[in-house]
């Protein structure tokens, strides 16, 4: 049998855990609401950019844009940009990403020398270092990115691609498919392919000034910047959703443990009271016999 004082101490400890997990759940809800709002705004902007870019691509001769450096594959190294969290306590959010990275080498047969990783999130950086994957020259980039930081990252990725340092660039991130179901997506970032615009409807035709090439070179970086920003907020939304669910389940489990401990405490307390009563009765009986 456990000591009632020890059970009481454990109950107080569980109550502290419940307060912590409940507070973390509420924080995740607030951050999730903010991330969804920003994601919706970025989607609207990206849809407009995609429509304009689609119209520009199909204005005039297709062969012109097919020779554009953003559409041609160069180099030998594949760059994978990995979106993870900086902290834990978010369920399987990070482990799904890690499984996808292992799948890339095991199933697709990529060589380690052909792949380079860039981590947005400390957990991804720690995993890549532990597994000794090739990592881009960085410490790690936190997932509290601003619009200016994303613009800088996109410009660096574009520069590496245009200088033939990378043959292609991919994004690995968690996508919230349904309310609480996540799937890991491997999406090509560069080079741009026409398949990305097949579903777009042709809008208005444009009179291009100064030229199609110069306009494309101006608008494509903006398109890529909006795309990376969209993926970032998608990943952030999935992270906060996963953390909110994990903290909700942790609160429920802690409440169940607390309920069981209270029952055990009451049983032990009742047993101790019954034992004391029996001792008193036995003591009175022994006194009566001595008389």
Automatic annotation (TrEMBL):
<keyword id="KW-0813">Transport</keyword>
<keyword id="KW-0139">CF(1)</keyword>
<keyword id="KW-0375">Hydrogen ion transport</keyword>
<keyword id="KW-0406">Ion transport</keyword>
<keyword id="KW-0472">Membrane</keyword>
<dbReference type="Pfam" id="PF00231">
    <property type="entry name" value="ATP-synt"/>
</dbReference>
<protein>
    <recommendedName>
        <fullName>ATP synthase gamma chain</fullName>
    </recommendedName>
</protein>
<comment type="subunit">
    <text>F-type ATPases have 2 components, CF(1) - the catalytic core - and CF(0) - the membrane proton channel. CF(1) has five subunits: alpha(3), beta(3), gamma(1), delta(1), epsilon(1). CF(0) has three main subunits: a, b and c.</text>
</comment>
<keyword id="KW-1003">Cell membrane</keyword>
<comment type="similarity">
    <text>Belongs to the ATPase gamma chain family.</text>
</comment>
<comment type="function">
    <text>Produces ATP from ADP in the presence of a proton gradient across the membrane. The gamma chain is believed to be important in regulating ATPase activity and the flow of protons through the CF(0) complex.</text>
</comment>
<dbReference type="InterPro" id="IPR000131">
    <property type="entry name" value="ATP_synth_F1_gsu"/>
</dbReference>
<keyword id="KW-0066">ATP synthesis</keyword>
<dbReference type="InterPro" id="IPR035968">
    <property type="entry name" value="ATP_synth_F1_ATPase_gsu"/>
</dbReference>
